[in-house]
Structure formats: C-alpha cells, structure tokens
TrEMBL record:
GO terms for cellular component: cytoplasm. It catalyses: 1-(5-phospho-beta-D-ribosyl)-ATP + H2O = 1-(5-phospho-beta-D-ribosyl)-5'-AMP + diphosphate + H(+). It comes from the Bacteria. It is found in: Cytoplasm. The gene is hisE. This is Phosphoribosyl-ATP pyrophosphatase. It comes from Limimaricola cinnabarinus LL-001. The lineage of its organism: Bacteria, Pseudomonadati, Pseudomonadota, Alphaproteobacteria, Rhodobacterales.
C-alpha cells in the first residue's frame, strides 16, 4: 500500500461508524487523541530503532506513519499539503532551511 492509498483510506473512513472503523474511532475522539496516539507510536518506533530490530522497526514505523496521517487528517492537513511542503524544501540544504525558519 502506498502512502497515497493509506491517506485516501483514512479520508474515506472519516465518516464511517466508529464502532466498525479504528480510523473513524480515532477521528471521533478528536485531534488531541490522534496526536497522543501518534506520539505513542513514534516512541515505539524510536525504541525499536535503538534496539536494532529491523522487522519490529518497520512495523512500528508503519504504525507511526498511519497515525501521523490520521493526526494530520484530524486537522485537515492532507498528504498533498505535506508533499507540497517537501517540494518547497527540495534542493535546499537542510541546514539552510532550518536557519531560515523564524525563531
């Protein structure tokens, strides 16, 4: 499944019954709960990265990406919005980009 497929599935489930869809259940709980869940999954991915288990890291990274997209959907930020921001930064040094951010 591509990230675009995943993002489309998340958007399609937005109006689904929370009793039948985990995505709908998360979104129904609001952006704060979605952010909390993303944070939990990100920490789990970090733990697996430190441990060095590639398979578990891949699994936790998939969970983190899913929950990141759910969190963004809860605030009406789309994968297209994220890609547009990445495109804006393309060809620019990460150090230069960071230095140009408002303090």
């Amino acid at each position: 499944m591509s990230l675009h497929d995943l993002a489309a599935t998340i958007l399609a489930r937005r109006g689904a019954d929370p009793e039948t869809s985990w995505t709908a259940k998360l979104l129904a709980k609001g952006p704060e709960k979605c952010a909390e869940k993303f944070g939990e999954e990100a920490v789990e991915a970090i733990i697996e990265a430190v441990k060095g288990d590639r398979q578990k890291l891949a699994s936790e990274a998939a969970d983190a990406l899913y929950h990141l997209l759910v969190m963004c959907a809860a605030r009406d930020v789309t994968l297209d919005d994220i890609e547009a921001e990445l495109a804006r930064r393309e060809g620019r040094s990460g150090l230069d980009e960071k230095a140009a951010r408002p303090r």
